[in-house]
Amino acid sequence: LNYWTTREYIYQLAIGIIFFLQTVVGIWGNFSLLYHYLFLYHTQCRLRVTDLIGKHLIIANILLILSKGVPQTITTLRLKHFASDFACKLILYVERVGRSMSIGTTCLLSVFQTIMISPMNSCWKNLKVKAPKYIAFSISFCWIQCMFVNLIFPLYALYVSEKWHSTNMTNTRDSGYCVATDLENISGSIYTALIVFPEVSFSVLIFWASGSMILTLYRHSRQVQYIHKASVSPRPSAESRATQSILLLASTFMCFHTLSCIFNITLALFHNPSWWLVDTAALISMCFPFISPFLLMSRDSIVSSLLKGKSLSRV
After folding, report:
1. What is the CATH number of the domain that holds 259?
2. Position 307 in a domain
3. pTM above 0.70, yes or no
4. How far apart are CA 19 and CA 39, in angstroms?
5. What are the residue ranges of helices labelled H in the chain?
6. Residues with Cβ within 8 Å of residue 18, at least 6 apart in sequence
7. pLDDT digits (tens, 9 = 90+) for 117-173
8. Strand, coil or helix: what is 154?
9. Which of 59, 57, 69 shows the shortest CA–CA distance to 102?
10. Residues 91 and 178: beta-carbon distance below 8 Å
11. N or C: which end of the chain has fewer CB within 10 A?
């Protein structure tokens, strides 16, 4: 008994330390990049469109880390238990908004970059001029949609408050820091229409945009090799390097998002999942908010040189 108790304690301590590191480093990275974007805005009085999208992605990451990483760290290390129904509703709402905005802004960034690097003789030639003008509206619409759509679920929880406190726990889910009624099971059709369908649509768009960027980069590299036959190792253009960085960001998101969906589906299939499964799902959901600011930092160090160029003055 002591062996298993000690082993469980060491396991919980290790998971808590990982959550703590993810949370601290993730908050530091996201706030550092957000400060950088704000500094650029106040010094240059404008941001590139990709920086504007990246700023909102960072805000979504911060919401995810604060609503997922902080509670998981506190409860895993057994510092406090979030037993309040209101706290659970608020945390889950902020987490859903951050998750929805994360996939929305990643999709917007991928699609925008795909349009901007498309050849002038492609079907996107008209959008290359119009797209930057609609980015601010698209981001605002995405925030409004995420906040109002996800607001349905805490309101639904208040409507079925008797079921929320019911002793029948067949439709409950333990997220590690609170036990709440599984609203996805109660309102499956609503959840599918408002949450699952948009996420699947955004995932398909990100996948399509990534494929288009890969094809465009391949064609560009072929052209560069043809033009610079005499050159031993022609350097890729700044535009290509910026696109590769955004492609890396989108690919990283799709990998972790797919893994997170698989684990969430697995959790939904079990009424009483193991702690290992719950903790692993939480760790995976924290990976992209933790890594993405550093991917954007590497992109920004490269794209900073593009301010001098005319070809990407609008990107």
Report:
1. 1.20.1070.10
2. no
3. yes
4. 30
5. 2-44, 49-64, 70-76, 85-116, 127-130, 135-159, 161-164, 183-186, 188-191, 197-227, 238-269, 275-303
6. 283
7. 887 767 777 788 888 888 999 999 999 999 988 887 777 666 655 554 443 434 445
8. helix
9. 57
10. yes
11. N
